[in-house]
Write a structure and sequence with these properties.
This protein has 333 residues and is an alpha/beta fold. It is built from 9 helices and 18 strands.
């Protein structure tokens, strides 16, 4: 019997906080207005986590729903990958998610790749399956960027929300992950940062150490927009080429939910109809690593995305990093 080495995405789940911050609420906090925000970003509201709600809680909720949708139980999971840039513990939160789920057989680790985290996690998970090491992998993208947002900075506070999304990947005789491409350019790192600011502390005599703190999110929005509109169509085209497909073959375009104008510009450059570009940005804002799986799960549960549908997904953001993957949704065997 041939060991299955293909990859199938067989279940999805998502979770978001109950608390909603609308554009009108923001207009009471900083100099902005609903029309201005919606025109430039497409965002109408975002969900925010209170002090009692952590990344691990949102990730576990999304993971539990994805596992159930895949007709599995937590003990069936071999590996948990958590893509996040805002862990509850700087040492990592994936093991906390494993404990919350009761997935006691699973190894667990974090990936930090900001808004590209889910795509990086997807490709990473696929390698463990293709080499025959694991059969069932839970991949979660979760972020609580409200922790690191400067709510007095109207350039960035209008953008970010909190949430989680998850998928289950399973070994399959038919490979449904058809092509991918990943890139990084650290020369553009300063365009989008959540940086550590060192503060010198004298420990003993002349011996100094650094005990600073992380600063709020800083972003050059114009440069990030230019980068995304140029690089995202390129990377999707490369992933499609590796899959021996074209944009005309796609059922859905699924981009990181950063800005509606980016989504529309990429769709136009790829000659994809606007209604084929999945978007829930208006309701959630930019949820970083959560945005792709959260939008995917909503589309699956709404009956838009069906088994066998062909999807091109692309993540892009801090690093700067960007990537794309082409896959068919659901089981094929």
């Amino acid at each position: 019997m041939i060991q299955p080495t293909g990859v199938a995405l067989i279940g999805s789940g998502s979770a978001s906080p109950d608390a909603v911050l609308t554009n009108d609420h923001l207009a009471e906090m900083v100099e902005t207005e609903d029309e201005w925000i919606q025109t430039r970003t497409g965002i109408a509201q975002r969900r925010l986590a209170g002090p009692e709600l952590g990344v691990r809680h949102l990730a576990a909720q999304a993971g539990e729903r994805a596992i159930a949708a895949a007709n599995l139980t937590p003990p069936d999971i071999d590996l948990i990958i958590l893509a996040t840039s805002s862990p509850d513990d700087l040492f990592g939160s994936a093991a906390q998610v494993q404990a919350e789920l009761g997935a006691n057989r699973a190894a667990a680790f974090d990936i930090t790749a900001a808004c590209s985290g889910f795509l990086v996690g997807l490709i990473t998970a696929s390698q463990f399956i293709r080499t025959g090491v694991y059969q069932n992998i839970l991949l979660v993208g979760a972020d609580v960027l409200s922790r690191w947002t400067d709510w007095s900075d109207r350039r960035t506070c209008i953008l970010f929300g909190d949430g989680a999304g998850a998928v289950v990947l399973q070994a399959s005789a038919t490979d449904n992950l058809l092509g991918f491409d990943l890139h990084s350019d650290g020369r553009m790192n300063d365009c989008l940062t959540l940086a550590y600011a060192p503060e010198a502390k004298v420990l003993h005599g002349d011996l100094q150490i650094s005990q600073g703190r992380y600063q709020p999110i800083q972003m050059n929005g114009r440069e990030v927009y230019r980068f995304a509109v140029k690089r995202v169509p390129e990377v999707i085209s490369k992933a499609l080429f590796r899959a021996d497909l074209t944009a005309a073959d796609l059922d859905w375009l699924l981009l990181h939910q950063a800005n509606q104008r980016i989504i529309e510009a990429v769709a136009e450059r790829l000659k994809i109809l606007p209604e084929r570009a999945l978007s829930n940005l208006a309701q959630y804002g930019n949820t970083s690593a959560a945005s792709i799986p959260l939008a995917l799960d909503e589309a699956v549960r709404a009956g838009q995305v069906k088994p066998g549908h062909l999807i091109a997904a692309s993540g892009f953001g801090a690093g700067l990093t960007w990537g794309a993957a082409v896959f068919r949704w659901g089981r094929s065997d």
